[in-house]
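Researcher: Next entry in the queue.
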Amino acid sequence: MTRRFTHALAALYAVVALAVAHLAVRTWTASVPYALLLGAASVLLAVAIAHHAYSRDELRAARAELERALRPYTTAQDTTVTDLVTPCCETWWTTAGAPHTCTRKDHPA
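Model: Structure for this entry, 109 residues:
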């Protein structure tokens, strides 16, 4: 489900919960059992909104974890090997990779 659809569904739950709560208040004088039933339905819709938000957050966390798991694992050793393979100039070798101004003309600074 898309984010826009899930937000619209939560908003629809809220509107229906408010409408049912309004009906519960309106029917209180005519029929107490129906008013209690409508009030319980309104509370259940409010719980559905909270559950919907919780599920949305869990889905977002699962997607982030899956994306993190799909990225290649790089260690500090891999980073060092990559740095050693791609020196920028002679100064890099003499400074052991410390920050410096590159002396190559074709190197983008």
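Model: The two ends are 45 Å apart (CA to CA).
Researcher: Noted, moving on.
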